[in-house]
Write a structure and sequence with these properties.
Elements (H helix, E strand, L loop, with lengths): L1 H29 L14 E3 L4 E5 L4 E3 L5 E3 L6 E5 L4 E3 L2 E10 L5 E12 L7 E6 L1 H4 L1 E2 L9 E2 L5 H12 L8 E6 L5 H14 L4 E5 L2 H4 L7 H22 L3 E5 L17 H11 L6 E3 L1 H5 L3 H4 L9 H18 L41 E3 L2
């Protein structure tokens, strides 16, 4: 009998332990008592699409873009972007702001840009660069003074073509600048050669830079006679090109020479030739680029060691001068993009509008642009 009593007590004890264990597990799961709460929810993180850039002839442009990517946050999560994908974007750069809001009102934002690049266009795409060795692209070096080789990369027609293709990207595949430079040529021979070239093909634009060999020739008679001969021949070139149907003729003053260098025998004649060209410009249907005025302050750097041919920097300068003249006189009008001042999400602020200052008569030629349109 005592043994049965012991067994009974042991069974009761085991039962109590099981009840306690089961009760504890039930409390942890069911929330009958304190315990850790639900896992915390992280804030949403939103990642915008990459910036978009579109080249167009004119704006506005309908632009579609990918939805932003959102991670974290409490579902469901809503996203919005303004301006929305598929909206009409004006010319210029527009900020697009995207927002994400989760179920417990946590928010995140990101920003990207849509650029609608209104690319200008030209009235024509074929160019003929005509002249002597400076157009051809001869370079002189300290180690080889008197020996001139064409620089096929840095001559101004090659550099001008690259600049035009970059600025007028929508026409890049059509733009061509032919290098018709001929070393040692004078203006008389140039007239005949230009006539022959124009019989074969009519470019949209002719660029004339010739006369340095005549200005350097000491046997050409008096200074005034030499200057008149050069400018008269160049005017004939302009007239010939226009009669053949060339849309725009650009002619350039002669470059400065650096006194004391090997090929600089026209230092005194060139300014006289150039002044005569400036006087004739109002009677010539062409654009005059005053390359002399643009080069002269830096001629030690822009003219090579022979005193005549440009350095690489000089050829780059020439290309830039002709690009500016082409842009000002041969570029199609760019249609204005509407609603610039009210477009949504515009980056930055609208520029202040102000009247242009009055422009009075020039006190000297240094204040005029390097190119001028002749009438």
């Amino acid at each position: 009998m005592p043994r049965l009593t012991s067994l009974w007590r042991l069974g009761a004890s085991l039962t109590a332990v099981m009840v306690v264990l089961v009760g504890s597990a039930s409390c942890h799961k069911g929330g009958g008592g304190p315990g850790p709460g639900p896992d915390p929810v992280g804030v949403p993180v939103i990642t915008c699409p990459t910036d978009i850039s579109k080249d167009v002839e004119q704006g506005p442009l309908t632009v579609n873009y990918d939805a932003p990517v959102v991670t974290g946050g409490a579902a469901p999560i809503s996203t919005t972007c303004s301006p929305a994908s598929g909206a009409s974007f004006p010319g210029g750069t527009t900020d697009v702001i995207c927002s994400a809001t989760d179920a417990i009102q946590q928010r995140a934002q990101c920003l990207f840009h849509v650029a609608v690049n209104v690319i200008p266009k030209l009235k024509g795409t074929t160019f003929l660069a005509f002249g002597d060795s400076i157009t051809y692209g001869e370079i002189s070096t300290l180690s080889a003074i008197g020996i001139h080789d064409q620089d096929p990369v840095n001559n101004y027609p090659t550099q001008l073509q690259a600049l035009l293709k970059d600025k007028y990207r929508l026409q890049a595949s059509e733009i061509a600048v032919a290098n018709a430079g001929k070393s040692g040529e004078g203006v008389a021979a140039g007239k005949t050669r230009l006539e022959e070239l124009l019989r074969v093909s009519i470019p949209d634009v002719v660029i004339l830079l010739e006369g340095a060999n005549d200005a350097n020739d000491n046997t050409g008679g008096s200074v005034d006679k030499t200057a008149d001969t050069i400018v008269s021949a160049l005017r004939d070139d302009v007239d010939q090109a226009r009669k053949r149907g060339v849309k725009l003729v650009i002619w350039s003053t002669l470059l400065p020479e650096v006194a004391g260098r090997s090929n600089a025998s026209g230092v005194d004649r060139i300014p006289i030739v150039n002044e005569l060209m400036r006087d004739y410009e109002s009677r010539t249907d062409a654009v005059l680029v005053d390359s002399f005025a643009a080069f002269d302050p830096q001629k030690q750097l822009l003219i090579g060691p022979d005193g005549l041919h440009p350095t690489v920097a000089g050829y780059k300068k020439l290309a830039s001068l002709f690009l500016d003249a082409i842009a000002a006189n041969f570029q199609q009008p760019t249609p204005a993009s509407p609603a610039f001042f009210s477009r949504p999400g515009a980056a930055g602020t609208a520029p202040a509008i102000r009247n242009s200052p009055a422009v009075g008569p020039s006190a000297g030629r240094t204040s005029t642009p390097p190119w001028r349109r002749s009438h």
